[in-house]
């Protein structure tokens, strides 16, 4: 039985944000190849500034280098560069008891966001069934990217809720950790894109849904259907997936409207509460993405993070949150080395 898998989380940036896109791309992919040598790429996402002009080139170079599939989304890095990457690698053989399935760039064919969201989940469910998995039983994390989120997010919410109703996911069962955020596909007609992560082989007791009810309210209270966070216990570690989290209280109200710094502080407090519920702390965060509605807030927020969470090195991208009053949102993955001998190791 496997007990020796090591995992690594990296945020990759370019050294010269003023360089041409091809040069920035080459630098980032060189880092991806160097880091992943002797390891398996478990998850890979590229944040790019202009999908219409960059995604085709990036996809072509990924094929040329035989790097494999990756998530590609237009969410401009806020350090002034054209590309950044989040890379999660593992070293050693994953336990065959579990099947890990990462799905990238799922899109639908309907004419609107509601229909596209329903299409995406339906087709995703079909792809999982081919490996004897289901959305309800095996999907542990989704990322939903929405073009013009202020206009199209309501359709995404309705489409997801409709689909979950057909598979029996309700407030009394569970939902799925998720981030719903602005992001663009190069085809303007594809207003919704989804990435997802599913695991087969987990026992129900291995999965815990995080709520931190002193700080946040259940999402269904304001009509959406996702979990605030999900913790997965293995025999040798714990994975904690924190959904997109903003400045909200336990009544579902936006706090500190118009004040991005105060919103960020409350957001950090909420994330700390979710991590604590899972037996983790901010020092256990291995990767984090910061989403800002207004690029001009980057300076004050990056400075705040250096002051308050200096151990964290997130990627900052421009991506409006699903409610206009939220100026900032963060998601993260945390890992602790808690051992639970009831379960097989990762």
Shape call? globular
Rg, please? 19 Å
Strand pairing plus helix content: what structural class?
alpha+beta
Instruction: Please provide the count of β strands.
Output: 14
Distance between the termini: 10 Å
Please report which band the strand proportion falls in: under 5%, 5-15%, 15-25%, 25-35%, 35-45% or over 45%.
Answer: 25-35%
Spatial ordering of strands, largest sheet: 9-10-11-14-12-13
Largest sheet: 6 strands, mixed
H-E string:
EHEHEEEHHEHEEEEEHEHEE
Helix content: 25-40%
Please report the number of helical segments.
7
Uncertain segments: none
What does this structure look like?
The protein is globular. The chain contains seven helices and 14 strands. The chain has a six-stranded mixed β-sheet with strand order 9-10-11-14-12-13, covered by helices on one side. Strands 1-4-2-3 form a four-stranded mixed β-sheet. The model has no long low-confidence stretch (mean pLDDT 97). By secondary structure, it is of the alpha+beta class.
Descriptive key words:
4-stranded mixed beta sheet, 346 residues, 6-stranded mixed beta sheet, globular, alpha+beta
Helices and strands in order:
Layout: E1 6-12, H1 21-36, E2 40-48, H2 51-64, E3 71-74, E4 83-91, E5 99-106, H3 113-129, H4 135-138, E6 139-146, H5 149-166, E7 177-182, E8 192-200, E9 207-210, E10 229-233, E11 238-245, H6 260-277, E12 285-292, H7 298-308, E13 315-318, E14 328-336
Parallel strand pairs: 2-3, 6-7, 12-13
Antiparallel strand pairs: 1-4, 2-4, 5-8, 6-8, 9-10, 10-11, 11-14, 12-14
Helix pairs in contact: 1-2, 3-5
């Amino acid at each position: 039985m496997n007990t020796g898998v090591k995992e690594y989380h990296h945020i990759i940036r370019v050294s010269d944000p003023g360089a041409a896109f091809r040069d920035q791309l080459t630098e980032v992919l060189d880092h991806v190849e160097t880091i992943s040598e002797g390891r398996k790429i478990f998850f890979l996402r590229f944040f790019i500034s202009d999908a219409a002009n960059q995604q085709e080139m990036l996809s072509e170079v990924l094929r040329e280098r035989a790097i494999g599939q990756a998530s590609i989304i237009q969410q401009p890095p806020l350090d002034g560069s054209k590309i950044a990457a989040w890379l999660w690698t593992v070293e050693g053989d994953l336990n065959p008891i579990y099947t890990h399935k990462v799905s990238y760039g799922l899109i639908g064919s309907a004419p609107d966001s509601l229909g596209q969201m329903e299409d995406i989940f339906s087709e995703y469910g079909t792809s999982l069934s081919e490996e004897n998995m289901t959305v309800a039983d095996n999907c542990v994390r989704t990322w939903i990217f929405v073009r013009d989120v202020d206009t199209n997010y309501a359709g995404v919410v309705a489409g997801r809720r409709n689909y979950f109703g057909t598979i029996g996911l309700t407030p009394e069962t569970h939902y799925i950790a998720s981030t719903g955020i602005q992001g663009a596909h190069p085809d303007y007609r594809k207003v919704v894109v989804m990435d997802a992560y599913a695991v087969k082989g987990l026992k129900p007791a291995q999965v815990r849904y995080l709520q931190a009810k002193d700080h946040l309210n259940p999402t269904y209270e304001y009509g959406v259907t996702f979990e605030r966070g999900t913790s997965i216990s293995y025999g040798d570690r714990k994975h904690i997936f924190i959904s997109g989290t903003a400045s909200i209280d336990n009544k579902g109200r936006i706090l500190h409207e118009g004040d991005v710094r105060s919103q960020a502080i409350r957001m950090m407090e909420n994330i700390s509460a979710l991590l604590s519920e899972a037996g983790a702390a901010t020092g256990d965060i291995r990767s984090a993405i910061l989403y800002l509605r207004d690029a001009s807030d980057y300076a004050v927020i990056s400075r705040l993070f250096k002051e308050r969470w200096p151990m964290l090195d997130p990627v900052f991208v421009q991506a409006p949150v699903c409610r206009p009053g939220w100026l900032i949102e963060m998601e993260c993955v945390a890992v602790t080395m808690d051992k639970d001998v009831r379960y097989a190791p990762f």
